[in-house]
Amino acid sequence: MKNDIGPRNAIMISFLTLALSTGIEAFSIFNNPMRRTTCLSAKPPPKASFDLESLEAYEQQLDAVTQLEEGYDVEEDLLLDSSSSEALSYPILADLHNLRIDAAMVACQPQLSRSTCVNMIADGLVWLVDEDDRKMPVHRKSHKVQQGQTLQLLLSAIGPQNLTHIQPEKIHLDILFEDKHMIVINKAAGMVVHPAVGHWNGTLCNALAYYLTTTSPYGPGDFADDETIADETSFRPGIVHRIDKGTTGIIVVAKSKDALAKLSQAFKDRRVKKAYLAITVGNPGSDVKIDKPIERHPIHRQRMRVVPDPHRSSQRQLPTAAMESKGRKAMSFVDSVVFNGKLALAQVRIITGRTHQVRVHLQDRKTPIYGDTVYGLADWNKKLYKTHQLDRPLLHAYRLQLEHPITGKVMDFDAPLPEDMIRIAKTIDESFERVLAEQFHLAATMRTL
């Protein structure tokens, strides 16, 4: 007679065998239906690989360090500059073997102070790569480096509050307006606003330190000393907003303490109106309102993202705390000027000024900025470089309106499109400038925001 134990008996035998080897009472699973989901294991189930609450607390701490006050136009948080996606790498040679990590950082980058090193370590900006190409973040300043490892530093900004001396550099500035209270500049592509790791020279602050102390017909203002010591000038820049390294266009700098206070308040109160021109892959549309909050990406810490919609099916399996993330309110208005079926020239007006706001909002709309290596499309970016030798986001801070901080007069500033964007825009539509002027009337648009 054939011995058929049946599927239920086979399962019982399997569990009985497991119970004998692990000491777990497998019978209770069958005897008590309420316990049929019990996990049979000789060891407690492994804990999650990360603590979500700790991660969110760390994110809030990092935001507090890297962002300006609420309401500032932080289109460039230098910790999150597009160049920051690439780390500076230094091989650990014999002379650095067994040094503390902070001492090794200073040896590789002498401009770093020990306190800056400590802050970078705390912010997760310091990594070690072993000989097998395995990366690990360093969390303790006392950590010892070993020969054969590679030290990686993510580019970290030095905030205005920490910048007191700077080397003046004679760098051309395209000045749109200046008086004794403020200066308005059309920033060139590739120019970083503040000195940072890997960008100690060639910044807007270096250029201002030279110009204000040697050339300005209105004097250096309250933040620069016209006496230099050891080729450095005492300089605390009155930067009230920032734009990305790769972005061109208008940036305002206060020269007096009174102007700094009033301009800062104007940005905070959102009384400063800003418009950008961007060349996008795809058509973002006309009369488009984008009202989506922005937060730091939970994995790629040098990037930002639109806060995921918890009601979308792809997001329903997220932990509750992650689904409840609100980010920071961000609002943009987009209008396409011309479109050729592939590329578009679009005007973007921002009401808030979040880190990478224009770039992130356009990426979320599936029409990223042409040339954006962080938020854009790799194939299109390669084509742009191969065809035009351009490797920056084609984004320009085109117009800005504010009240003069002292006189109260309403002032409009326009920065013409840079040559590289004109060249690409003409491939979209030769008459884009006429269309831009006729269809959008930017001056009137800005006044009625």
Structure description:
- With 449 residues, this protein is of the alpha+beta class.
- 28% of the residues lie in helices and 22% in strands.
- The chain has helices at 6-22, 27-31, 52-66, 101-108, 114-122, 204-214, 257-268, 320-323, 357-364, 378-388, 419-428, 432-440, 442-447, and strands spanning 88-91, 126-129, 135-137, 150-153, 165-166, 174-178, 182-187, 224-229, 232-235, 238-239, 248-254, 273-281, 288-291, 294-296, 304-306, 331-339, 343-350, 395-403, 410-414.
- A hairpin with an 8-residue loop joins strand 10 and strand 11 (248-254).
- Helix 4 packs across helix 5 (114-122).
- The radius of gyration is 28 Å and the shape is globular.
Q: What's a quick, concise take on this entry?
A:
By secondary structure, this protein is an alpha+beta fold. It is built from 13 helices and 19 strands.
